[in-house]
Amino acid sequence: MNPPVESPRRTVLVSAGATGLGQVLARAFLDAGDQVHIFDVSAPAVAAFLQQNPGASGSVADVSQAAEVAAVFEDLQQRYGRLDVLVNNAGIAGPVGLVEDCDIAGWDQCVGVNLSGAFYMTRLAVPLLKASGSGSIINISSSAGLLGCPLRSAYAATKWALIGLTKTWAMELGPLGIRVNALCPGSINGERIDRVIHADAKQRGVTPQLVREQYARQVSLRQFVEAEDIASMALYLTSAAGRMISGQALSIDGHTESLASVS
């Protein structure tokens, strides 16, 4: 049997798509010829992205607020009237520290963005994906969602939960031809991991360089991931070549051996 023929103009929605990994993901889909709509909490970041990528469209919204997510989908519906690929990329690092010191407001914010945001997005995306007759959902989890991560309770909890949702949604939506997968990056080069390293170093009372070296030693390939590595896998999973891959939590991390603490 021949694989299905894809439309050259799929519609793709990427949360937190104006900066960081989201920006790289959005550009990868644009380069593949897709129609891409991004949204982000930062209006200047959205404006800058759209100026640099005039083929895209965008909205300003906080993914942790259900009403704002609903407004994004109203915008998407008016512009394109369909959805083929959803990328639940929005995520924050959350508080760094021992569980007994974990800030409740920081916990709530991390859960709101990383977990509730993906739920708000997906519940509105599914009717559009059903109408398209197929489609794909990519949830951005983490190696911390497979192994746990000391001093990162909120982050690890949300990333584990995303994998559970991935498995559940794959079961619910598979009979409709909709695939759901989670990508589990290791440390991705960029400003975000730099902030995490500095917070981790401060908590442990060691230098950022020591923490960076320790993070690299936790990986068999001894290096950090590039955002383009994640985008390449997202393109593959949402293509006809990945038509039989669903319900998977795929590591793109150079093989993380451990997320143990700095000694």
Could you characterize what this model shows?
The chain is 48% helix and 14% strand. With 263 residues, the protein is an alpha/beta fold. The protein has one domain (11-186, 226-252): Rossmann fold (3-Layer(aba) Sandwich). Helix 1 crosses helix 9 (227-237), helix 3 (66-79) runs parallel beside helix 4 and helix 7 (191-204) packs across helix 8. The longest helix has 29 residues, at 104-132. The protein is globular, with a radius of gyration of 18 Å. The protein starts with 10 loop residues before the first strand and ends in an 11-residue tail after the last strand.
Offer a few descriptive terms.
263 residues, alpha/beta, Rossmann fold, 7-stranded parallel sheet, 9 helices, 7 strands, globular, disordered N terminus
